[in-house]
Amino acid sequence: METINGEWYMKGCATEDPNRLRSPESAAELVRRIGFLPLFSNGLPGFSLEERTWAGDWWTDDPARDPWAWRQALAREPDLLYGKFFDRRAGFISADWFPYFANYRRNGYDFDTLVDEGLAPHRAIKLMQPFLKDGMPNDAALHSFALKAQAGFGKGGEKNFEGVLTELEAQTFLVIGDFRQRLNKLGSPYGWHIAVIQTPESKLGYGRVTAAYGESPEQSAARIRERLLALFPEAKPEQLRRILGSSLTTD
User: Is 162 contained in some domain?
Assistant: First the structure.
């Protein structure tokens, strides 16, 4: 996606492109096959859901053909994770590759270890509290608006909820596990579908998320970089860096 004269333009593929994705199932299968995929274009040509779909399908409100709606279906897949993983922009990571991202992005730290060592920012601690029990991730899944209120953000409270949430997703401590409507007093759904936040551990299990903790964060980063180079051998260092991201700093 790019802005020209103040207007957004999608970098979609041609309608007749044989590699064009035409369904959420085909998009999910692509993520599983290559391991991870940004939602929007990101500086590495061809490496996004946007560039593998036709621009005319976006924001049509047809869940069968609208890639913006597909992200909801993919977020619900038990072996795919969705969040702002790539340069703090949205994308997907398969369960097979998520442990390497987690090991690298977290720099070998679980969140409770950051807290114990006095390294976690206080707003991140407040936002993570609903998802922890005795320091370990629980099974909580909260609408973003409910999380904002429960964590004490908003009017008269903490500021920059979206920024803190984005950072925790980039560090792989939180993911968007679903999109659900609000419920009225009668229990009936209404309005827009809103992001539901949870920990990746609650979706995949702690053992699977931390499966790469036995290697150094640098080794995990090397795996991701090598995968990108296998897919895009002409990729430049800056293009790789934007996808790989940075590890959590504790200085």
Answer: yes
Judged by DSSP in three states, 53 sits in: coil
- Please state the domain count of the chain: 1
Q: What digits encode the pLDDT tens for the residues 168-225? A: 999 999 999 999 999 898 889 999 999 999 999 999 999 999 999 999 999 999 999 9
In sequence order, what are the beta bridge partners of 133? 136
| Dihedral sign, Cα of residue 200, residue 25, residue 86, residue 75 | negative
Q: Which domain holds residue 223?
A: 2-10+25-243
Q: Which of 211, 145, 209, 144 is nearest to 176 (CA)?
A: 144
Write out the two tokens for 104.
């690298």
36 token code pair: 């991870």
Residue 19 maps to a domain:
no
Report the C-alpha gap between 133 and 112 in whole angstroms: 10
Give the tokens for residue 244: 């790989």
**Distance in angstroms (rounded) separating the CA atoms of residues 200 and 131:** 11
Q: Does the model's pTM come out above 0.90? A: yes
The answer to the question of residue 251 being in a domain is no
Nearest of 95, 99, 94, 98 to residue 30 by alpha carbon: 94
Q: Which of 92, 87, 129 is nearest to 112 (CA)?
A: 129
The pair of three-digit structure tokens given for residue 198, joined into one six-digit string = 């949870």
Find the largest Cα–Cα distance for the chain.
56
Which residue, among 205, 167, 227, has the nearest Cα to 36 in the 3D structure?
227
Question: d(Cα 96, Cα 245) in Å, to the nearest integer?
Answer: 18
